[in-house]
Every structure is written in structure tokens, then in C-alpha cells.
Automatic annotation (TrEMBL), chain A:
It comes from the Bacteria. GO terms for molecular function: alpha-D-ribose 1-methylphosphonate 5-triphosphate synthase activity. Pfam families: PhnI. One of its GO terms (biological process) is organic phosphonate metabolic process. The keyword Transferase applies. This is Alpha-D-ribose 1-methylphosphonate 5-triphosphate synthase subunit PhnI. It is an enzyme of class 2 (transferase). InterPro entries: PhnI. It comes from Neoroseomonas alkaliterrae.
UniProtKB/TrEMBL annotation, chain B:
SUPFAM superfamilies: PhnH-like (SSF159709). GO terms for biological process: organic phosphonate metabolic process. The lineage of its organism: Bacteria, Pseudomonadati, Pseudomonadota, Alphaproteobacteria, Acetobacterales. The keyword Transferase applies. Gene3D superfamilies: Bacterial phosphonate metabolism protein PhnH. This is Alpha-D-ribose 1-methylphosphonate 5-triphosphate synthase subunit PhnH. The keyword Transferase applies. GO terms for molecular function: alpha-D-ribose 1-methylphosphonate 5-triphosphate synthase activity.
From TrEMBL, chain C:
It catalyses: alpha-D-ribose 1-methylphosphonate 5-phosphate + AH2 + S-adenosyl-L-methionine = alpha-D-ribose 1,2-cyclic phosphate 5-phosphate + methane + 5'-deoxyadenosine + L-methionine + A + H(+). Belongs to the PhnJ family. It holds the Pfam family PhnJ. GO terms for molecular function: 4 iron, 4 sulfur cluster binding; alpha-D-ribose 1-methylphosphonate 5-phosphate C-P-lyase activity; metal ion binding. It is an enzyme of class 4 (lyase). It comes from Neoroseomonas alkaliterrae. The keyword Zinc-finger does not apply. It comes from the Bacteria. The keyword Metal-binding applies. Keywords: 4Fe-4S, Iron, Iron-sulfur, Lyase, Metal-binding, S-adenosyl-L-methionine. This is Alpha-D-ribose 1-methylphosphonate 5-phosphate C-P lyase. Its EC number is 4.7.1.1.
Amino acid sequence: MYVAVKGGERAISAAHAWLEETRRGDPAVPELSVAQIEQQMPLAVDRVMAEGSCHDRFLAALAIKQAKGDLIEAAFLLRAYRTTLPRFGASEPLDTARMRLRRRISATYKDLPGGQVLGPTFDYTHRLLDFALAAEGEPRASAPEGSAPVGEAPRVTELLTREGLMQREQAGDAEPGDLTRQPLSFPAARDARLQNLARGDEGFLLALGYSTQRGYGNAHPFVGEIRLGHVTVEFTPPELGFPVELGEIGITECQMVNQFKGSRTEPAQFTRGYGLVFGHGERRAMAMALVDRALRAQELGEDITAPAQDAEFVLYHSDNIEATGFVEHLKLPHYVDFQSELENLRTIRRAAEAALPEAAE
Amino acid sequence: MTALTAGFADPVLDAQATFRAVLEAMSRPGRVQRAGAGLRPPGPLNAAAAAVLLSLADADTPLWLDAGAEAEAWLRFHCGAPVVAAAGAAAFVLATRAAPALASLAQGSEEEPQQGATLVLQVAGLEEGAGWRLTGPGIAHEHRLRVAGAPPGFVAAWAANRAAFPCGVDVVLCAGEHLAALPRTVAIAEG
Amino acid sequence: MSTMEGYNFAYLDEATKRMIRRAILKAVAIPGHQIPFGAREMPLPYGWGTGGIQVTASILGPQDTLKVIDQGSDDTTNAISIRRFFRRVAGVATTEHTAEASIIQTRHRIPERPLREDQIIVYQVPQPEPLFRLEPRRAETKRLHALADYGLMHVRLYEDIARLGHIAKAYDYPVMVNGRYLMSPSPIPAFDNPKMDRMPALQLFGAGREKRIYAIPPYTEVRSLDFEDHPFRPIRAPHACALCRSTDTYLDEVITDDAGGRIFVCSDTDFCAERQAAAAPKEAAE
């Protein structure tokens, strides 16, 4: 006699124990510390902070360890933690012109105030596997000390704006929206779009940004500037009424300069695509800047012809925590619905066979 | 100024119990629920209305009220809701005296009818089984509700409110430690 | 009161609960209309019931008894996982018996035993927009709901009739609520649709990833879309349950061997077990 399946509770516990075993791997190999991940996988940590929408290197490293190196899973862990934290308010806007720079490059000028600073980059490395890294314990040569950049490093886009060639962004005093508290609605304002992109999946942003370069959307981008470094975060407690410093965070900012032919109301000028992400995330910041500019098509009166310009399409599908959950939910049992589809199909087939008796013979 | 009286004794569980009372009231229009037992809000605020606002209003919900400075200070302290001067700009409207006209409150739009206001209306008494005849969603056949001290012309104003569906205002009637609700779908016939 | 170190009762913070509670009340006041809400990331993945979980967490109190089912069964892995979650974060009593529950969270089924006035059923909803296969743009579907313009859906159903002779939608079969809003009943089999009509219990729907909440108040008209000459017909496998012999419940098909062997058993495991228990003494006496 048939007995319905039972024992799901035991199966879940056993599966989780097994997962934990595979996370640790061979116990003969020393365990990774969270500090090691934080120090030696800094770009993975940065990506998890960006997509997890929470600037905390330690927690991001812990999440990577717990997620066995699955960065989307790690970002999910961080988001689920973030959502339980109390919200005190919004910081003052970051002033990236006053960034303590580690890297700053412009593709639009040969030289400029503050200079070009190459910084810690994979650019110009030859992608040859370094087998010396496999021989652990080798002390490595430290980087030579250079002289720190002297003087101010004004933002490139600011130079163009002063000349009247770059469209001026509208400054506002209103507190920007927050997608973690108010769901997206359309048309989505730029603050909501930028927040969405800053948390978006890096692969999705990269592919969309890339598509704008290949003719899907009318992009003519120049990298005005990429800057990487640390900025001060300030917060004004209502009871004090003046800003206090909370500390510093590492960020990457990319400003793309794009052609704009002008419209009836605006002269021909450059327009900006903007990318800002937690940590060192140059690829992400650049892709974000390309997509930001593409999403401005409507407000700039450009034809909307490409996926990257379609705000609903881009913003509803950029979040990898949402996407992975829904794609993966297909592995949950669906047998009730499948059963009604089966009966449905059988009914259709019976009706078709009855209608064509000769075909059945 | 005198010290404020306390809010919920257990902010988590009292808010939950009050919400369930309001949910039950909104789901079954005309059925009277209990809320706010033990609360001692400053007058003219009654216990049920105080409990409703403590459990639902906060910094995200603009509040309009006519209950005077003491009640306003109490609600500001315990809910943190921003008090607005125009009833039409409020998510929650607390009426303890002459209620503002339903049509003057936020109605929502055809696309976003949920932006219609919730009117917390203090009345003298609520009694099941007699008075108005209520029909509509949430009601199997008919619920009777006697409301002592409803604003004059309320039933006619309500008919206009209901006719604007899906836009409109939802009402929570509060008397002492009792409440009943009128979602915008309910039809009222005078009994 | 807290049952898990560092977390609030029922996991969500109070501000989030208030936001969800306000959305639920407006949902009840506007039956079938989708209310956007600021869904939070939950410690379970989107698509795995986060909307239902947030609704349940916002209504749940210590006096409640919770039942969680997935595919009609209390013992499917995701149902177990969600029930475990609430035991952990709210310490509430749980049950597998429909009759004992004050709140029932479900994925894909409505219990066979009729629900009562003192019960609330919370549906997990993957896709709250009934028009999404016909019009993926939410800005556009929002407009269609505002206009009550549901021609797209009628055309889609009529095309089935023209091509196949009947409406071929077997689950997530669209309904009209209180004669005004077209609504997704969530992916329950069409067999369950009639149970929604004038149900004595309050029905709440939560879609976490899509960030929408909607509701059907008790005793509200819920009509499955159909045509006069092609009335709605619920589908079930035309068999009796192999365990309790019921002929009017929804059945799962279980493959018993690789030679075409199969049996049909009730999808609602609690209902089936109760029927078997009730029949057992009688049979023993015979």
C-alpha cells in the first residue's frame, strides 16, 4: 500500500549538515579566516558590499565565507541582514571632489589638474598565470612609494560644466527616494534609477552597457573620469543641526561624457552618464554610467529603441537577489499545477482524437 | 506641561492585537471590536482611537487632527507622525469634534486608490444588531450597526464616497474601547 | 517578547510591520486591487514565499495557531522550512490540522475543508499581475486596472475556445473580484477557484519580489472569468483517492513504477488523513 512521503524535516537538517561539511572542505587544509578573505579577496568583498547594498567589509567577507564563495548568495546574506538594521536617516551627499584618491584617470584629457594617477589596477598587466603565487609564503616586493598628488583634483565634468559644454545636473534639497522602503514605480526618477543600478547585478549591467556600445542605443561615450579612493561620510543628527563625520568609505566613481545633439529647448552639449559604487568596482561603475545615460533617453527626447533604454525592462531585472530567487524557485515542487496541466492536455488530446476517429485507427 | 501618559504597555504585542481588531473590523464592516483597553490618552482622545493610531501611524503617515494640543503632543511623542494643517494632505485623519467632509480628504486616484485617507472618527457609541443596515464585501447578508453621535448628513456623504469607488475614504469608528470600520465598499441604509 | 536573539517578535521590525499592516487594510478596503508595498529582503529567497511570510509575520500574534502548506501538504520541504522559521522567530503554536489553525499560509492550494470566519488564509504569490503574459509593462497594466479594461484577457481566453474548444488555463485562472478588479488567484489549480467565492474567511495575498499585497474580504463575490456558452469548469483527475476514496477532492498523480503504474491520492494530506482515520474504525467493525 502506498504511503505518502514523510521525513522532510529530517532531510532538511541532514542536507544542511552536508552543506556545512562541503563548505569547510578537507579539514586537513587550514581554515580560511574572515580577515584573510577581507584582505586577500578585496574585489570579491567590494562586489558583495555593492550588490548587498551594505558597506561593511567584515560582514561581506563573512558572507563570502558562509556562501562558499558564491557571491550572489553572499550578497543575499548581507541584504537579509541589512534589512533588520534600524534606519537613522540619510547622510549628507558625498563630495567626491574631495576624495582621498588612490586612482584617478581621464580618457578625455592628456593631462589635467591633479594629474593622472594609475593606482592599483589590472590595466596593463599581462594576463599570464603567476605560478609564483602557487608557492605560498614567498615574501613579495612592496610597491615603491610615489609622491602623493599635489593640490586639488577637480572633477573633469566640473571643468566642462564651467565652460557651459556639459549639461548641468539639477540639484535638489529633497531627500532622495529609497527603493528599500518604497517600491519602484514608473516613470522612475533618476535617484531611484541610480540606486537600482548601484545595487544591480554586475554581469547584467556589463552586458547592457556593452550592448549600448554595439548599436543598441545611440551611445557615444568617453570616460571623462574614473576615480577611486576614500570619501568622508557626514550625517546631520536632527537634534544637533550640523553635520558630524561618521567615517570614511571606499568608493569608485565614473563619469562618462556623452554627445547630445540638443533639442528645441536645449543647445547641443555633453550629457553625463554617472556611476558610483561601493569599494573598488571599476567595471561596475563604468557599466552603470553607460546604462544611466541610456536610461536618460526619454528625458532627453531620444528615440527609445534598445533594451538598455527601456527603464521598466532594465530596472525590474537588474537585481540579482530577486532574479536568482525567482529563477531558482522553479525547483520547488509544482506538482499540483503540473497535475492540472496534465489533465488539461489529456482532455485536449481526447477531444482531438474523438474529432478525428479515422486518424486514431 | 504635565507628563505624558504611557502608550502601549507592550508596544509589539499591543500593536499586533489592535491591528487584528482593526483588520477584523475592516473585513466585517459593522461588527464591533475591542481595542485600547488600559490606555489612558489625554482627552478628548478615546482609548480605541488612540490604540488605532499607535498601531498604524508613524513618521511615514501625515496626520491631521482636531483633538487639541495635549492629544497632539501625546500622539507626536508616541507615534512620531508628522502633523499637517490640511486634512486633505493626511493619510490619517482624527476627528473628535465636527468631522471634516469626507470629500475634502485624500481620495486616491483611479490608478492608486490606496492613497485614499483613513478617517478615525470618534463617536459616542457603537452597538451591533440595530440601526444602519450594512451590505457589501465582508458581510454575508446584512450587518446592523447603531452609531450614536455620527456627524449630521453622514449617510448621504457616505453614499457619494462609495460611488467614487475605487477612490474614496475608509472610516474607523471609535467609541471608548470599541471600534467598527466602514471600508469604502460598504453600502449604508438607514434602519 | 522575542524568541530569537537579536530579532523582533515575528522577525520584522515594527516600522515594517506598520507599513505592511497599512497596506493590508487598504487591500481589504479595495478588494482585488494590488497595493504596492516596500517588501523587505527576507532570510528566505524571493520566489520562495517572502510575500506570504511578510503578510503572516505582520498579522501573527502569540495567540495564533499557524498551519503552512505547499502543494496541499504540510510535509513538503518549503512548507517545513517556513513553519520552522515562524516557530523560531515568533514561537507560535503550529498545527497540521486545518480545523485547528487560525492562520493558514499556503502555496498553490486551498484546503478541502471549508474555512471558517475565525480563520485567515495567506497565499504566497509569485506573480500578482493577472495580465503579465499579455502586457509585461506594469505602468501599462496599472492603467488597464484603473480603466477596468480587461479586454486583453477576454480575447486570450476566447482564442483558447476557438482553437481548442475550451479554455485551456488549468491553474492561476483569472478571477473578477467584487465585479471590479481582475485578480490572480495565485497558481492554485482552477479546481480551487470556486472555494474563493464568498468564503467566510479573510483571504490575503502577498507577493514579495513583485512587492504587492492584495486581499479578498469575507463573503465577497469571486467569479472565474468565462463565457455564457463556455462556462468555467474546474479540472481534477477523474479518479478516486487511493487512500481515502474521495471522489471530489483534488488529486496528485503518483508514479509507482516504470511500466505505466500510477495511483491518485489527495493533495490535501490533512484532509485525506482525517478521512482515513474516520473510515478506519468503521472498516475494522465490519
